[in-house]
Amino acid sequence: MLSLVTLVCASCLLLGAQGQERAAMWRGNDRSGRCQYTFTVGSPTEASCPTQAGGPELEALKSRLSLLEVMVTRLTGGQTGPVDQQQGLQESYNQAMGEKAELQKEKDRLDRQVQELQMRLEESRQEAERLRSRPCTQGSSQQQDSGLRPGGGSSVLSHLLPSGQTSGLRDPSWHYGVPGYQELKAEVAEVPVPTTAGIEDSTGCGELMAIGEPMTHRKADTIAGKYGVWMQDPEAAAPYGPSMVWRIDTVGSEVRQLFGYEDMEQLARGYPTKVLLLPEAVESTGATMYRGSLYYQRRRSRTLLRYDLSTESIASRRDLPHAGFHGQFPYSWGGYTDIDLAVDEQGLWAIYSTNKAKGAIVIAQLDPHSLEVLKTWETNIRKVTVANAFMICGRLYTVASYAAAETFISYTFDTATNQGKTLSVPLKNKYRYNSMIDYNPVQRKLLAWDNYYIVSYDVRLGKQQ
Questions:
Q1: Residue 286 has what pLDDT?
Q2: φ/ψ (deg, to 5) at 364
Q3: How confident is the model at residue 67 (pLDDT cuts 50, 70, 90)?
Q4: End-to-end CA distance of the chain
Q5: 358, 394 in Cβ contact below 8 A?
Q6: Quick one: CA torsion of 92, 94, 100, 104, rounded to 10 degrees?
Q7: In this structure, are residues 43 and 53 in contact, taking their beta carbons and an 8 Å threshold?
Q8: Rounded to whole angstroms, how far apart are CA atoms 240 and 231?
Q9: Exposed, middle or buried: residue 206 (CB in 10 Å: 0-12, 13-18, 19+)?
Q10: Cα angle 2, 6, 58; round to 5
């Protein structure tokens, strides 16, 4: 390396001497990091080199310029990597939003279909109730009954049908013994609607003969009042008087509010004087009021509760033995009406059913203080085939339809004789969705809750047969 430098230097001196030009020397590191010496001598004849001259400094400058160009390109948006990534994310987002919109459209379509199906189901249910409430004739009762009962069939006691008429209709979901189950249908019997004077003249206990026109007292304010129960205590105790009216709206999963009104006028105006929060939730529309206490079924259980109005606390509780609950044996309108509490001239009653009774209505007389069952009776009519029931003078009465505008009391069972029979006492469902009917023995009225409306009926009792 030293000889090469010496040779170059000698050549440079020679050229410099001949061309009278001075030589120049540069020193710098090459690309591998080694020290390199470079000598240049100006040419005496050529104005410029035929090829572009350069050196390490120029190469380094070019490298720096290249780096600067790359940085400028990136700063001005010339780099395609991040932009492509952003475009890809935007396309994925747009695709996801499109899929979401399609799913929302599909959901809306399914919701509309569900609503249509629900409307059709309700229409079919009301039509079935209308057909079921139509009085049957002797020659065609079997044809009318077929297919109108829950479970797809009917059951009729041959000894309860008109003389000479037999029936082979059976509900395949039930195994019947003797006696069978009384059907809702009955022959039409013309019963005059009572006048006010006739009702006022009736005294003492007797069989239900007629029911007056419905009298509307108030409409519920919200959807929570579509179903409910309202009561007046026939044997009121302090601190509340006999004119006090009580109401519970039963729509919802946690029904606990008990509204009290000073009288019927305040009820009609919608001004409660007392609002109580019950310690345990209410199940359905089967509550009743008696001797200063509210009696009701605890939600999702067969437990009966006695809520003392004076102390505002639970005074008694007891399970109703073997009683179905929460949809096992409801009335035909549903609403978890498995246990229905009632009051009449003879005290406190429970209307329900059990697995042992195979869905037939069971009546139990209860001790008002301890809720102990004093005695039970098993009837010959299935609970799910009737719309509602109530007690008058120790007799059970069932309602044929909750939705038909013109229905009737279809069956009665007398606990004194342990005998049941069919009836056809007209009853009007003015608003066509009657979810509660109870009897007040002091006022001689039926209290009902008909599709948001609180209504009452006068009744006329006749001589016991």
A1: 97
A2: -125, 130
A3: confident
A4: 143
A5: no
A6: -170
A7: no
A8: 13
A9: middle
A10: 85
pLDDT, greater one: 257 or 138: 257
Which are the contacts of 13, defined by CB distance < 8 A and separation ≥ 6? 23
Q: Identify whether the C-beta of residue 267 lies closer than 8 Å to the C-beta of residue 246.
A: no
Cβ within 8 Å of residue 14, ≥6 positions away: none
Provide φ and ψ at 120, rounded to 5°: -65, -40
Structure tokens that stand for 352 in this block: 């329900």
User: Would you give the distance in Å from CA 256 to the centre of its chain?
Assistant: 17
Q: Where residue 35 falls among pLDDT bands split at 50, 70, 90? A: confident
Asked if 31 and 59 touch (Cβ cutoff 8 Å), the reply is yes
Q: How far apart are CA 224 and CA 452, in angstroms?
A: 9
Tens of pLDDT, residues 153-211? 333 333 333 444 433 333 333 333 334 444 343 333 444 444 433 343 344 799 999 99
Rounded Cα–Cα distance for residues 9 and 146 (Å): 127
Report DSSP letters for 315-371, one per residue: EEEEE-TTB--SSSS-BTTBTT---EEEEETTEEEEEE-BTTTTTEEEEEEE-TTT-
Inter-residue contact 376 to 364 (CB < 8 Å) = yes
Task: Name the H helices within 204-347.
Answer: 264-269
Tokens of 325: 């609950």
Confidence band of 230 (pLDDT split at 50, 70, 90)? very high
Alpha-carbon distance 39 to 24, whole Å?
5
Write down the residue that tokens 């409306």 correspond to.
Answer: 453
Least confident of 117-121, 214-218, 233-237: 117-121
- Region of poorest pLDDT, from 26-40, 393-407, 447-461: 26-40
With beta carbons less than 8 A apart as the criterion, state whether 279 and 230 touch.
no
pTM: 0.60
Q: Specify the pLDDT at position 263.
A: 95
Opening angle at CA 250, ends 247 and 252, nearest 5? 140
Q: What six digits make up the tokens of 371?
A: 């809720």
Range 300-327 average pLDDT: 97
Check residue 42 and give its pLDDT.
65
* Amino acid at site 379: T
**Pairing relationship of beta strands 373-382 and 388-392 according to DSSP bridges:** unpaired
For residue 383, the SS3 value is helix
What contacts 243, CB < 8 A, 6 or more positions away?
A: 232, 262, 263, 264
